[in-house]
């Protein structure tokens, strides 16, 4: 069994709970089994680029802050890249066309990030976004979704490990899994939200940092998959309510 981090990265292998982390070798972004999003359907979704190349997803939580995954913004030694290397593209379903681009001003990585845990980060923008019908913040959830709740995920992640490259934002609906479902996949710790799905659905490379939403609020940040994209195992997301105080302390 393997754990696959969603970001576009060089090949690396690291043991965790008897499993292995294998970041992707190539870029081919789309959510597995997803549908194409329409303009303005996910106004909080952004694309994150580093040095001009697409890397991850993220969510607008204020006019100057983007919520994403820690592994999207750090190097192999878990040191944050310079904020100026990052560009956030908002207000479009095609990250290569349209929308508004903003550069990073400061990167905040959770101080306890490592070994998949506390995989959450913030990017402060160099200038504020102007809200519109296609650019809007999403509120932070303060409690975990109930087991079985329908959770909406979105991103430009792969269709499969070697799937085709879509130009448009994708979305899918997963289900909040039980703690035992997380444990059965070999990954279970505080601050983790597991999202269940049938085979052929779920998140994949390129979806990292992207949102999981419930009742119009963000409850999760895409972190990893277990057993490959579209496997029958739940996908791993950072549980936003668990990190609520950490996020608010920096945004405010």
Automatic annotation (TrEMBL):
Keyword ATP-binding on entry? no
Under the heading SMART domains, the entry gives: Tryp_SPc
> Which GO terms are recorded in the biological process aspect for this UniProt protein?
proteolysis
Q: Which InterPro entries match?
A: Peptidase_S1, Peptidase_S1_PA, Peptidase_S1_PA_chymotrypsin, Peptidase_S1A, Trypsin_dom, TRYPSIN_HIS
Residue intervals of the Peptidase S1 domain: 31-252
Kindly list the GO molecular function terms attached to this UniProt entry: serine-type endopeptidase activity
The record's listing under PROSITE patterns reads: TRYPSIN_DOM (PS50240), TRYPSIN_HIS (PS00134)
- Any keyword Protease? yes
Q: Which UniProt keywords apply?
A: Disulfide bond, Hydrolase, Protease, Serine protease, Signal
Signal peptide, first to last residue: 1-26
Family designation: Belongs to the peptidase S1 family.
Q: What is this protein called?
A: Peptidase S1 domain-containing protein
